[in-house]
Amino acid sequence: MDFSRRRFLRNTSLGLGALTVSSTFPRWLGDAAAATLSGYAGYRATVCVFLLGGNDANNLLVPRTNIAHGQYLDARSTLGIPLGDLRTVNPVGMAAGAYGLHPALEKLQALFEAERAAFVCNVGPLTLPMRKQDYEQGTVARPDNLFSHSDQQDAWASAISNPSTVDLPPLLENKATGWGGRTADRLHGLNPGDYPEVTSFGGKALFTAGAERQPLMVSPSGELGLTPAQGAAFNTLRTQALEDVLAIHNGVTLEASYGGVFTTAQTFSAARAAAREAAWGALPGDIQVELAGYFTPPAGTSGWTLPSQLFQVVRDLVAGAMPAASGGLGVRRQMFSAGLGGFDTHAGQDTTHTALLAQLDFSLDAFQKAMTLLKDQGVFGAHPPQATLFTMSDFGRTLAENGERGTDHGWGSHAIVVGDRVQGRRLHGVYPNLDLLSGAVNNADSVDGKGRWLPSLSVDQYGFTLASWLGLGGIADRDHAFPNLSAYVTAATTGGFPAAARAYRVPFLIPDP
């Protein structure tokens, strides 16, 4: 499909329903640090699943050793999961059965043991690396409005934890951008034409916004454009009427511009729909049915939203990876955003969290099954599509439960990564010390007596690992997408922090040859 630069935007922003596309398209091919396809010549995508509200990762991944599990139960007299109920996992380099997963995570347990999933431990927003003493004495700036839902969602989505004081490059000043969108700014030159690099079906909108590239914002149903009516004649009449109305501008520049933008958006919406249908149709019929079946929620469930979002991601992913000669988009790099809400579990967490994790467990497994099935489809040629799914959330929650069978806002948390290119069956980073005795006075990992974990890995490191896997290039690319990362690593190095804090990347993805 040929998306002409001039035809696609004419230097304006697009809008049709939730469609947004940037007005300026920089080409970075002259930059010595430009993004590259050298890691993988085929198609790659990352899929962000934002767990909105603050997922309680303390009940996601639980130590099973006697001392640590005892400390865990001491802090959670009603919410703590008994040893016998945990789903045992065996991380590489650790004693057999050292950790367990929440009972609802049966499929994630299997993915982990099959080395298709891993955890990134105690990651969170940080301005600079910090020790507990720095937190207590204020010698290192904390993230803005720590423990606030909206601010910490923004910190995760933007990888800028101190927007009130940060010194940004001129291109980013006075713009609300996320690390996904800024990565798209730099990956744009890797894709043919001007198709948006980021597509959102849910999650946190800020994550998808770039300084120059803007996302495709699509409803969770996957529909983009005018809802078709049952009668073809009506659809034709409506389309013609719209064209007639949009052609009327009475010499007013603003009206003419709006008409042009709307018309272009209609054209783009139709082109996207055609690519999705053509690419999906190129798959064998039984494969289409099997893929759809993976995302059909089990009997007895209701209100599940994440499976349908991830199915639409797969539909778009197939269209993106399919060669243009077969009717697809023929792009090389994409990012997707999805979301699941309800994780603000101040009360009644035992039932609410279990239901949410069951939905998450089903959805992650369905997505990985879909990618495994697509890998064997010859329609993609010698380079089948690759995808890495990862989670983000506002923050972790307190290890200590409150008086309402719930937990309160925390800080560092454990993230999940899933995919064939994941260094699976591993805990990346450092699991925190769970000792809250005497208000955690001797525990360097908790900033207070409730078990709010001081992150040992930053969102910047987490995000840059994923972005560089997609092809984000050298210093110029890195500093555009993650403007705080260089200062973070420098401070960790000069401050004598552990090796993990001094690294730009977290090694949860298999290195390319």
Number of strands: 12
Globally, the shape reads globular
Mean pLDDT: 90
Query: Which radius of gyration do the C-alpha atoms yield?
Result: 23 Å
Alpha-beta classification: alpha/beta
Q: Which range best describes the helical content: under 10%, 10-25%, 25-40%, 40-55%, 55-70% or over 70%?
A: 25-40%
Beta-strand percentage range: 5-15%
Separation, N- and C-terminal Cα atoms: 31 Å
| Low-pLDDT regions | 1-33
- Summed up, the helix count is 16
Q: What composes the largest sheet? A: 9 strands, mixed
User: What is the chain-wise order of helices and strands?
Assistant: HEEHEEHEHHHEHEHHHHEHEEEHEHHH
Name the features:
single chain; 513 residues; alpha/beta; 9-stranded mixed β-sheet; 3-stranded antiparallel β-sheet; 16 helices; 12 strands; 35% helix; 11% strand; globular; disordered N terminus
Descriptive report:
This protein is an alpha/beta fold. The chain is built from 16 helices and 12 strands. It has helices at 5-8, 66-75, 106-113, 132-137, 149-158, 179-187, 205-208, 232-246, 253-281, 285-294, 306-321, 349-375, 437-440, 459-470, 475-481, 485-494, and strands at 44-51, 61-63, 87-89, 99-101, 117-124, 198-200, 216-217, 333-340, 386-393, 413-418, 427-429, 457-458. Helix 7 links the parallel strand 6 (198-200) and strand 7 (216-217). Helix 11 runs parallel beside helix 12 (349-375). The longest helix has 29 residues, at 253-281. It is globular, with a radius of gyration of 23 Å. Residues 1-33 have low confidence and may be disordered.
